[in-house]
Design a protein that fits this description.
This protein is an alpha+beta fold. Among the domains are: 57 residues; 54 residues, RNA polymerase II/Efflux pump adaptor protein, barrel-sandwich hybrid domain (OB fold (Dihydrolipoamide Acetyltransferase, E2P)), CATH 2.40.50; 133 residues, Helix Hairpins (Orthogonal Bundle), CATH 1.10.287. Helix content is 51%, strand content 20%. The strands form 3 sheets. A 7-stranded antiparallel beta sheet has the order 1-15-12-13-14-11-2, with no helix packed on it. Strands 3-10-8-5 form a 4-stranded antiparallel beta sheet, with no helix packed on it. A hairpin with a 2-residue loop joins β12 and β13. The longest helix has 65 residues. The chain is elongated.
């Protein structure tokens, strides 16, 4: 009995105590490992802090910070001396070539993008109609000159007739005076001595006096008629001269029209937008082609807040998008008086509805001081001007 009692299994409470002891040891070991890691990380952090606190590191960091601050300050100081914009384009006054007369095109001597000089022939228009008109006007001029000669001859004839009429009038007047005096003497003699003068003699004297007076009046009337003929002939001369002047003016116009059959380049530049071809019938004012002048400029639309220090004559550096390696020297020529929107087809009505202030842009004209040799410049090309305002 005593042996069986001594070999019985251990108590359950003691087994649970052993397990609890093992868990406690495991937790202590984990806590110890975590503490060791914390200590190691703290040591590493102290080492890093100690490295950052070294004089060389502090001096180097301070120098780098000063350099960066100085670079930022220098950049700001340099940038504030300039105003730039990317809203800028090459501009020019494109010459649109149109004919002055109507006709059929017989020749075109200009190709697209070709360089032309002032006076170069661009287009030929058929001159047949103009030459026919010129010949007709020449004939009218000759007719007017013939009429002028006839009128001048009529003036000479009328003047001669007037001179003759004056002479006749003088002679008739003298005869009338003589006949009147004879009649007066006969009547005086008859009154003093009636038997000395016969009645027939007195009647004869009366008739002679009346005849002489009538002849005098007729001669004076002829003189007046000759005067009227002179005036008419002189008016005919003036009319013939006017027709001659008109014909000569028409001749000049026809000669000009004959010259206009050859359309020439009005300026130096490059051909653009050519629409004319041989056989095309053109009319005055119809655009045949355009010429882009060699002299161009830059129209830059700066914000109104950028214009405070911008003045005429300030130097400009122009970068061209089409030629990124080219920087052109230029200068400010003028500033437009008014924002671009004020000249729009439909200007804004700020007095109606709600208003939101928007910074406006003002066109600035920039003249190029130099032109690139191998970089083509034309209206509408994008550029970036940079104006030195300080």
């Amino acid at each position: 009995m005593s042996d069986s009692s001594s070999s019985s299994p251990p108590d359950e409470g003691s087994g649970r105590d052993d397990n609890n002891h093992r868990h406690d040891r495991d937790r202590r070991d984990e806590n110890d490992s975590e503490n060791d890691e914390t200590v190691e990380s703290g040591q590493r952090a102290r080492k890093r802090n100690d490295w950052l606190r070294q004089p060389k590191v502090l001096i180097t960091g301070g120098v780098v910070l000063l350099v960066i601050s100085g670079a930022v300050l220098l950049w700001w100081w340099h940038a504030r001396q300039f105003e730039d914009t990317d809203d800028a384009f090459i501009d020019a006054r494109v010459v649109r070539v149109s004919p002055r007369i109507s006709g059929q095109v017989t020749g075109v001597h200009a190709e697209d993008n070709q360089l032309v000089r002032t006076g170069d022939i661009l287009v030929d228009i058929d001159p047949a109609d103009v030459r026919a008109m010129l010949d007709q006007i020449h004939a009218q001029e000759m007719q007017a000159e013939t009429a002028l000669g006839q009128a001048q001859a009529d003036v000479s004839l009328a003047e001669a007739q007037y001179t003759q009429a004056i002479a006749n009038a003088k002679g008739a007047d003298a005869q009338a005076v003589n006949a009147a005096q004879d009649l007066k003497r006969y009547r005086t003699l008859q009154a003093s001595t009636p038997q000395a003068v016969a009645q027939g003699q007195i009647d004869q004297a009366v008739a002679a006096a009346r005849s002489a007076a009538a002849q005098r009046d007729a001669a004076l009337q002829q003189a007046k008629s000759a005067t009227a003929q002179i005036a008419a002939a002189t008016a005919a001369v003036a009319g013939a001269q006017a027709r001659i002047d008109t014909a000569r003016a028409q001749v000049k116009q026809a000669q000009l029209n004959l010259e206009y059959t050859r359309v020439v380049a009005p300026v130096d530049g490059h051909i653009a937008r050519r629409t004319v071809a041989v056989g095309t019938y053109v009319s005055p004012g119809q655009q045949m082609l355009a010429i882009v002048p060699l002299r161009v400029w830059v129209t830059a639309n700066f914000k109104e807040t950028q214009l405070a220090r911008m003045q005429v004559g300030q130097s400009v550096t122009v970068k061209i998008d089409a030629c990124p390696d080219v920087d052109l020297r230029a200068h400010v020529d003028s500033l437009q008086r008014g924002a671009g929107q004020a000249f729009a087809l439909l200007p804004p009505e700020n007095a109606t509805g709600n208003y939101i202030k928007v910074v406006q842009r003002v066109p600035v004209k920039i003249i190029l001081d130099e032109y690139p040799r191998r970089c083509p410049l034309g209206p509408g090309m994008s550029v970036e001007p940079r104006v030195q305002v300080r």
